[in-house]
Write a structure and sequence with these properties.
Helix content: 40-55%
Number of helices: 7
CATH architecture of the largest domain: 2-Layer Sandwich
CATH class of the largest domain: Alpha Beta
Membrane topology: Peripheral membrane protein
Strand content: 5-15%
Number of domains: 2
CATH topology of the largest domain: Barnase, Chain D
Shape: globular
Protein name: ATPase
Largest sheet: 3 strands, parallel
Distance between the termini: 39 Å
Order of helices and strands: HEHHEHEHEEHH
Structural class: alpha/beta
Number of strands: 5
InterPro entries: ATPase_AAA_core, P-loop_NTPase, Siderophore_ABC-ATPase
Keywords: Cell membrane, Ion transport, Membrane, Transport
Subcellular location: Cell membrane
Amino acid sequence: MPVDHSEAREKMGGQLSMALRASWLPKITNGWFFRAESFFSVARYLDKAARDAGQAGPDFLSHSHGEGFLRFFDERCQRQGIFIFDEPESALSPARQIEFLKLLRRMDESRICQVIMATHAPLLMAYPNARLLRLGKYGLEPTTVEQTDHYRVMREFCDDPRGFVEATLAE
């Protein structure tokens, strides 16, 4: 008969949460969480706020989705803070992902911010000295780019694009 340990885990988690206090040194008060799906709403708001204030705004929406995305990141990520990106590659072609890597490098070199990113893009996972974690059966596990399913699929595709697509469609 299966044993339900959820009540014990809940009590233990409750005790642990009472003993811990999240903090960041030095104290960080800036930063944001960014989902690709939110970009148009945020860009529309920022463009309108600038127009309403009589200023020449950033004009994110007059560019392609990827270009507007990069402009937004470039403008907003040059400050101290914690930046959490949820699949930023969804708006970026591979060439624009490389531009995003360059932006990440500038952020990293400034040593004033930290980036936490959820991604499926092997290009972004390959950022030098990135700590990669995979959500596995038992929680977060360290991994390498080469160990990810996304890398393996891209490698197989790059080795034989036509053969890969034909085999995939035949399944």
